[in-house]
Amino acid sequence: QVQLVESGGGLVQPxxxxxLSCAASGxxxxxxxxxxxxxxxxxxxxFVAAISSxxxxxxxxxxxxxxxxxxxxxxxxxxxxRMNSLKxxxxxxxxxxxxxxxxxGSIYTKRHDYNYWGQGTEVxxxx
Length: 127
Description:
By secondary structure, the protein is mainly beta. The chain has strands at 4-7, 10-12, 18-24, 33-39, 46-51, 58-60, 68-73, 78-83, 92-99, 116-117, 121-125. The protein starts with a strand and ends with a strand. The mean pLDDT is 96.
């Protein structure tokens, strides 16, 4: 069982930056593939980024490539999402997710691939 708690959301101007954190409970964090998803107002939840349990592989949705960076610190049981050059269309509730992977290099991009979810943190990009 993994419990996930996100933090770091808030109001930011277009072009600004935020770093989201997702703290996980349990001693097996380093064995989980981690993902970030977001749900814009009035839309369905969508994949943003994922990182393998080993941390050696990452994957991003095209709309955030070059602007967002996912990373993890297994010693702190935390995964991060650094968001730069934010745009109004990045406004959403951001949630982290976890699943036990088939191997240490596995990446997952579908919602149904993940077993554990946090409650989410709201990001609003507005002038």
